Amino acid sequence: MAGDPIGELVALFARLPGIGERTATRLAFFVLESPPELASGLGEALSKLHDRVKRCRTCGNFGADELCNICRDPRRDASIVCVVARVPDLVAIERSGAFRGRYHVLHGLLAPLDGIHPENLPIAELRERVEREGVRELVVATPLTVEGEATALYLADVFGDSGVEVTRIASGMPHGGELEFTDQVTLGRALAGRKKV
User: Fold this and answer.
1) How far is CA 182 from CA 14, 136, 146, 193, 196, in A?
2) Helix 123-133 vs helix 146-158: angle between axes, to the nearest 10 degrees?
3) pTM exceeding 0.90
4) Where in the chain is the domain with CATH 1.10.8.420?
């Protein structure tokens, strides 16, 4: 008995983050109703993805070579390193255009209850890099979660006596945000980080 190829494709799409069953169904039918070249191109790109993409040996970003485009760019300020949990966080910061330093991707956050300890993250590599490259500032841009805060505090402790300035990204009210719809933690941080007008 033949399987259900559309159902299988819907199930695969639905495993992607942020894709529910309705969106997965819409994507499956879009691919089915498109020229066959789209499905072939998607299949080929996906099947070769893990072979073609490498982790940058310096920062952990994804790219096609041993060094990512950011680490190879001589115009980037190597003395300032932004520490992020995941590559999508790096991409979000890059989209802002506000940071011209380099990055270090942890590919996770400290979560002792889940078995993720400092030795499970590339923190030792970060220490070596800071010494080797003469980094003067680490900008910790981990999420404002329990794990993100724990990781930020750990990094501040590790580099506390090294002469490297450890800073944390600011947090607070989003531009255009309404106070009544803002959560308590965000509002508290916005008040604590207030500036003179």
Assistant:
1) 30, 35, 18, 16, 22
2) 40
3) no
4) 5-52
